[in-house]
Amino acid sequence: MVLLIESDSELASVIQMILVDGGLDVVKSSLETYFDDVHKYAPDVVMVDEWRAGSTICRASKKNPATQNIPVILTSTQDNLRQIARKCQADDVLAKPFEIDDLQSKVLRCAEAHAKALLN
Q1: What is the pTM assigned to this prediction?
Q2: What pLDDT, on a 0 to 100 scale, did the predictor assign at position 119?
């Protein structure tokens, strides 16, 4: 399951449709409800837009023992996305605009890694 926080509601709906078509469950969240939602849904992946305080959410998630092992994919149009991701310990990045195949492969790779880690 993917917990999605995206500043553009239309793009969030498109991302949700693409991932659902790929066989994943997606729950849209927000900055205000993220911490409740991450505990409620126990996602395999968190995908968060840097515009919506993505690095802040990522940093807090990685410091919290209950959420630190959930992969976080940081998305943005910013040129320095990789640098931001390193600072907040994001597991991957997805630069906007992105290709559908990149979206699906990055989310699936992170979800599979998380599932594998839970089994160990």
Answers
A1: 0.94
A2: 87
What range defines the domain where residue 98 resides? 2-111
Residues 120 and 115: their CA atoms lie apart, in Å, by: 9
Domain count, the chain: 1
The answer to whether residue 120 sits within a structural domain is no
Mapping DSSP onto H, E and C, the string for 4-16 reads EECCCHHHHHHHH
**Nearest to residue 84, comparing CAs of 57, 52, 50?**
50
Q: Give SS3 for 93.
A: strand
The answer to whether residues 111 and 24 touch, using CB atoms and an 8 Å cutoff, is yes
pLDDT of residue 104: 96
CATH number of the domain within which 78 lies: 3.40.50.2300
Match 């959420």 to its residue by tokens: 67
Per-residue model confidence as pLDDT tens digits over 41-75: 999 999 999 986 899 999 999 999 999 999 999 99
Across all residues in the chain, what is the average pLDDT? Answer: 94
Instruction: Confirm whether 45 is domain-assigned.
Output: yes
Residue 12 in any domain: the answer is yes
Written as six digits, the tokens of 120 are 């160990």
Does 78 map to a domain?
yes
